[in-house]
Amino acid sequence: MASKPSIPKGTRDFSPSEVAKRQYIIQIIKSNFEKFGFQPIETPSFENSDTLMGKYGEEGDRLIFKILNSGDYLAKADATHLESKDSTKLTSSISEKALRYDLTVPFARYVVQHQNEIEFPFKRYQIQPVWRADRPQKGRFREFFQCDADVVGSKSLWQEVELVQLYDTVFTDLGLSGVIIKINNRKILSGIAEVIGASDKLIDFTVALDKLDKIGEDGVKKEMIEKGISLEAIVKVQPLFNFTGTISEKIDKLSDLLSTSADGMKGVEELRFICDNVLKLGLESAVLDLDVTLARGLNYYTGAIFEVAPPKSVAMGSIGGGGRYDDLTGIFGLKNMSGVGISFGLDRIYLVVEELNLFPETVTATTKALFINYGDKEAFYALQAIQKLRAAGIKVELYPENAKVVKQFQHADKRGIPFAVIIGEQEMESNVYSLKNLKTGEQISVDFEKLKSSL
Amino acid sequence: MASKPSIPKGTRDFSPSEVAKRQYIIQIIKSNFEKFGFQPIETPSFENSDTLMGKYGEEGDRLIFKILNSGDYLAKADATHLESKDSTKLTSSISEKALRYDLTVPFARYVVQHQNEIEFPFKRYQIQPVWRADRPQKGRFREFFQCDADVVGSKSLWQEVELVQLYDTVFTDLGLSGVIIKINNRKILSGIAEVIGASDKLIDFTVALDKLDKIGEDGVKKEMIEKGISLEAIVKVQPLFNFTGTISEKIDKLSDLLSTSADGMKGVEELRFICDNVLKLGLESAVLDLDVTLARGLNYYTGAIFEVAPPKSVAMGSIGGGGRYDDLTGIFGLKNMSGVGISFGLDRIYLVVEELNLFPETVTATTKALFINYGDKEAFYALQAIQKLRAAGIKVELYPENAKVVKQFQHADKRGIPFAVIIGEQEMESNVYSLKNLKTGEQISVDFEKLKSSL
């Protein structure tokens, strides 16, 4: 191989400092998941194709990475599709497995498969990579981690309250003040459509409404009309185009607007319960916002819908999202299992924390001191100290070779190691260590106990 | 989907307690890797096929999971191979990516690709899953984690010394006393072959010698003769069939046996350096053993070879292995990069720790207390306490629904939650909490501070 090797597009290598920073975020998410009573599960990277296919729509099916059967896969290939060179139809006869596309469908599969071992309500979290054959672009990768927490087996709205708190504590722990937790409810959206007599155009309506920030009131109205929504209907929802006030005031407005829709009023009631309790219990650093344009995953969610926007100073899309889905496991034959969950967008959170310079310096701190290697006798002496320091939990290293001293110091410098320990003949004789602070250049002679306490 | 869903053979779901136990082992490995100065990297789950293919021999190539190209993959398929239904030859034209088979080849690729950003010697660790289309059997899976630590860019034998210490500290921390760290050297093996005049039969010789434990001296000799190794040659290495004594005595025997082989004597010298220093520095709980039958990865290693056997009380194969490879990155065009590394076998270590009952009880401890839900008013009151307890890092949960109290207690019991907190009208009025120990049944009335300190 003559040319430098590379990795597939849309994938990434993570350097030590990147791994450390990602782990820092994951650790904060994980510890909060556990504080809230969520338990970890892990599922295989690939699932049987029929577990995944048909769950994400046609576009989703296309974006699922399929694994070629092992061995003589053509022996079992469908002859007709092979002859007609029909890639789409051939796939199922030469590929039985596929890489997971998200963590929700595998979770639903897990719940159904293990329903007799699980104690419901089941609060699980899962932090694992997923794969999508999407066109790579800035911030969008073909392999990325999802961090999901879901509760399955209870319709209690206290869970929505706690999930908002969970977002708040995670982002507070990350030092990310002022994230906006947007909440809406699928029933509000269908209530609105019902009131305006355009239930069959619900998706068109919400997709248009969702663009309010981007294309403005006129643009949204224009799009709605183009989609066949009547002007009369649009006039009815005029309050939604200038939807301001406190959350409580907004809910009152919705209550007026949706008074004729049973579904809509159920949504108002749910929203009120969740928002009231969240606000009375209080958030640490996040801001709760009721956003009726929020319509993510419309086909999926049935109750609360969440989306988290980064602090206003950062221009970036959502860093989290989630909601309630009344029939999580129905696709695998287990009915009446309501689920509600949220997800953290690791890659974007990383970019936000980086942009705001919020990674603590200690995150990437690795080795505390490099022991300079003056030869085998000195190295052995050094390793005796190193062994004891490591046993005390201190990260120290011996430079492996008796290289030029200046090279060894350069190595410490490039690695960002703050101290060097020098042990030559003299130090060995007097049973001391020369400890050099590589930032200040200051060097002191210490005994082992002092060395240990200094590091 | 009517039938219960399942997962592909050779893969696993991990339940909360299994994840917790795996994480416990991984955390101990990780923290020791870092104490020894290794830094984490992560590489993509799939690599370009040409990065992986041809690196693991023909059998390895077959066991690599290939990913089908996205879109109309048949459009670019080789027509001849398609027509002749030649699966093996067709693969490269319909699949450009493959799941990684181990962590070593991706690491070599990483080093070459990022050589200008890396400060050598580079001590990296990597803990990620790998995939092999192997026939699943007890303890062998198609998806499993590897935990590798390698140093690249230095030939210093101090690294071998430290890697033995690293094995020792990890297994000591796991409470696994008496693991046997077997060491050998590839140069010893080739020296032996040279001395007996059967250099061309080195692999046959070592494969046979490796079976000494299984088929005995006679069996090994029989196999050697069948493979065309002369009786005269076998007589020359008679000392190897009863190779006892201290490590130092064994090395002396090898020194006699290999005195005419330059390669062999180099191996003796290396072994002596490593073993002498390891023994003088001392191991905490592991036992070092020189095992001349150890020949794993023969085509790969060029110096030290390591393998770790579990304590003698457990019947199980190796739980770790590694060695020195002088030309790690040559396959990707970067010459003269010596590497040395070790690997921990997570799945087998798990089984050993389980069998010896060494997982601390706290590992699977999750939620500390369940707050019983008596209705929305009480639940709100409970959440006020829960919020403060979580802020103090205590894992507590509210039962999400106002279900029958006996059902809520059963939930705590099944989940293994040790305490319940009861808040009814009475408690709310007197601003106290009833804390019930679910093991003893004892129930006390406490204020918030006492509640917090009790949990």
From TrEMBL, chains A, B:
The encoding gene: hisS
Subunit record text: Homodimer.
Binding site for L-histidine: D102, L103, T104, R132, Q146, D150, R296, Y300, Y301
Stored InterPro entries: aa-tRNA-synth_II, aa-tRNA-synth_II/BPL/LPL, Anticodon-bd, Anticodon-bd_dom_sf, His-tRNA-ligase, HisRS-like_core, HisRS/HisZ, HisRS_anticodon
Subcellular localization(s) per the UniProt record: Cytoplasm
Catalytic activity: tRNA(His) + L-histidine + ATP = L-histidyl-tRNA(His) + AMP + diphosphate + H(+)
Superkingdom to which the source organism belongs: Bacteria
One Gene Ontology CC term in the entry: cytoplasm
NCBIfam families in UniProt: hisS
Protein name per the record: Histidine--tRNA ligase
Keywords for the protein's UniProt record, in alphabetical order: Aminoacyl-tRNA synthetase, ATP-binding, Cytoplasm, Ligase, Nucleotide-binding, Protein biosynthesis
Family per similarity comment: Belongs to the class-II aminoacyl-tRNA synthetase family.
Entry keyword Ligase: yes
EC number assigned by the record: 6.1.1.21
Biological processes, Gene Ontology terms: histidyl-tRNA aminoacylation
Lineage of source species: Bacteria, Pseudomonadati, Bacteroidota, Flavobacteriia, Flavobacteriales
Domain Aminoacyl-transfer RNA synthetases class-II family profile: from-to ranges: 1-400
Alphabetical list of PROSITE patterns matching this protein: AA_TRNA_LIGASE_II
GO terms for MF: ATP binding; histidine-tRNA ligase activity
